C-alpha cells in the first residue's frame, strides 16, 4: 500500500533553508508543502509571476514528492531549487525541461550603505513604471504586480527618478529584492548601490534575511551584490514542456 507524503501545515516543520522558506511564503493560503524524510517540496502559486515548486532533498524520496505534488497542484508548477536537485528532477521526468541556471544570493547582515535612496510614495508609481518600460520591460517586478510591495528610489539633482529596486514577494522570514534598474545616463554613480543598500538593510531589519536571484550570466550584478555582503549558491529552474510558453501571470 502506498503511503501519502506528510502534508505540512506549520512553517516550523520546513527546513531552515532560505530558498525553501522564501518559497513557502509563510505558508500563506494557497501554498502547500509535503515532506518525506529529509525531502521537502513546496508548491506556491503566483510567486515571482509563476507557479513555483520548490524542491529540496535528493533521491527517491524527493522524486516521489515531486510526482505527488504535481498530481495535486498541476503540471504548470515549475521546479526551482539547487542546481543539482533540479537536475535530478529533470533526469527523472522526461516531460520536464531545464530552463536556466541562476544564483540565489542572500545575507543576514545589513550593508551599512548610507546614500540618497528613499522609499517612494504611491505618487511615484507612474515614474517607476516609465523607468521600467524604458529600460527593463522584461522585469518581473512591476508597480501593481502581485506581491510587489514597495519601491526604493534615487532621484538626481533635478528630481528625476534615476534608479529603483523593489521589495517584491518577500516572505515573513526572507525579504526579497527585485526589479533593480538604473537609467543609462545615471550609471556609474553608485545609484544601484544606494537603492539596493536601502532595500537590503530594510529587509534584513524586518525579516532577518534579504535575498535575490541573479541570472547565471550576469557577472556584473553578482559582483555588485557580493560587495554588498550577499553570499551566492547555484540554483536552477525547470518547467513541463507543455507550459514553456505560458504567459506571465
TrEMBL record:
Q: Name one Pfam family in it.
A: FR47
State the SUPFAM superfamilies in the record. Answer: Acyl-CoA N-acyltransferases (Nat)
Give the matching InterPro entries: Acyl_CoA_acyltransferase, GCN5-like_dom, GNAT_dom
**Segments forming domain N-acetyltransferase:** 115-249
Cleavable signal peptide: none
Q: Which domain of life is it from?
A: Bacteria
Q: Which residues fall in a coiled-coil region?
A: none
Annotated protein name in UniProt: Acetyltransferase (GNAT) family protein
Q: Specify the species.
A: Actinokineospora diospyrosa
Amino acid at each position: 500500500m502506498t503511503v501519502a507524503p506528510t502534508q505540512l501545515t506549520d512553517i516550523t516543520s520546513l527546513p531552515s533553508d532560505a530558498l525553501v522558506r522564501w518559497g513557502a511564503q509563510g505558508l500563506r493560503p494557497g501554498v502547500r508543502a509535503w515532506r518525506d524524510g529529509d525531502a521537502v517540496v513546496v508548491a506556491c502559486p503566483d510567486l515571482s509571476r509563476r507557479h513555483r515548486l520548490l524542491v529540496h532533498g535528493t533521491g527517491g524520496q524527493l522524486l516521489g514528492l515531486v510526482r505527488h505534488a504535481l498530481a495535486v497542484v498541476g503540471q504548470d508548477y515549475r521546479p526551482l531549487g539547487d542546481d543539482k536537485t533540479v537536475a535530478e528532477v529533470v533526469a527523472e521526468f522526461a516531460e520536464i525541461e531545464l530552463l536556466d541556471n541562476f544564483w540565489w544570493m542572500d545575507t543576514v547582515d545589513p550593508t551599512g550603505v548610507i546614500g540618497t535612496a528613499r522609499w517612494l510614495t504611491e505618487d511615484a508609481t507612474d515614474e517607476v513604471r516609465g523607468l521600467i518600460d524604458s529600460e527593463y520591460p522584461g522585469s518581473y517586478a512591476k508597480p501593481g504586480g502581485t506581491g510587489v510591495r514597495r519601491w526604493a528610489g534615487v532621484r538626481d539633482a533635478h528630481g528625476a527618478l534615476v534608479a529603483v529596486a523593489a521589495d517584491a514577494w518577500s516572505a515573513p522570514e526572507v525579504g526579497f529584492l527585485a526589479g533593480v534598474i538604473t537609467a543609462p545616463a545615471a550609471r556609474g554613480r553608485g545609484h544601484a548601490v544606494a537603492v539596493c543598500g536601502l532595500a537590503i538593510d530594510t529587509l534584513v531589519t524586518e525579516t532577518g534575511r534579504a535575498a535575490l536571484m541573479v541570472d547565471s550570466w550576469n557577472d556584473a550584478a553578482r559582483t555588485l551584490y557580493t560587495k554588498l555582503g550577499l553570499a551566492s549558491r547555484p540554483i536552477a529552474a525547470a518547467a513541463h514542456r507543455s507550459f514553456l510558453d505560458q504567459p506571465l501571470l
